Amino acid sequence: MKALKSTIRAACYLIVAVRMASAEENEPASPKSGGTAISTTPNQDVRGAATRAVRLIDRTSANFLTTRVCFTCHTQTLSAMVLNDARKVGIEIDEANFKRQYERAIEDLTSTRVDAKGYALWALDIGQHAPDDKTEAIVEYVLNYQKDLGTWKTTVDRPPTEASHFTTNYVALRGLNRYGTAKQQAAIATRAASVKQWLESASAADTEDEVFRLRLAHEIKLPSDQVDRFVQKLLIEQDADGGWAQKHGMKPDAYATGSVLVALQEAGGLSRQDTAWLRGLDYLVRTQQPDGSWHVASRAKPLMEYFESGFPHGKDQFISAFATGWAAEALLISLTQHNDK
To answer: I want to staple 271 with a disulfide (CB 3.0 to 4.6 A). Which of 111, 170, 276, 340 is the partner?
Structure first.
């Protein structure tokens, strides 16, 4: 069985390699930006797709700040992540907008959901915001939230992003680890121990669960064999088209595919020369809209009255913004200089 899987993956790699080589022969070379070293593995289609997505995210995230005063995970955190990494590969961004995106996490402290607090700390960390009284207060809130449970539980059911206990626990614990003060360390360790105990036996129901189970396992430093088991589970679920679906029975989309690829690389250590990685990139490039976005249909019940944020796709704009963020991040990761073997 293992030999058969290896043969299939090798065949897939050959198909993708031929496709990418053909694209490079038929298209003019793209200019290098800012002297940044670019990986020779991705073809110029990846850079073009990344650039289109970054420009859309930069423009629409700036517009979002003029339409609402609230902090949002799908706009601020993912936009900060993408804009920050775009600079590393020589894609020009609005530096002032990048700063405004992560600073919104401090400007709006109204949300009571722990996942929103965790995403806010994530955005601040991306912007290298120094710990202060406000971040200490956020950490204290997260520490005391559902303290009697040990772990954190979701309080709304808005799939895929706000329906996973794994996501909630990851963003909460990540924030505590980055911004906890010295006097908060004992309480953080207590909650981390509870999360670790829960994680070792918790079952994942869908791709969002699996993505953030892998991230959480890496965050709390589970043994490498356990982390690898979570990696293999995600790899097995890659579609024949190269993408991932949010759950069984659904078609692949950019939200699942982008978030899987980023988690596999950042938390699972997957090589950017791996067949699964290349097939995933190929899927994202092929399914991107001309405007730089990826359209994903919403499955969540709205929490607020509908409004136009400036991002494409109408009632599907928020999940599509999240999807475009994860997809863009995967493309940007592929463009950074690396030492994959």
So the answer is: 340
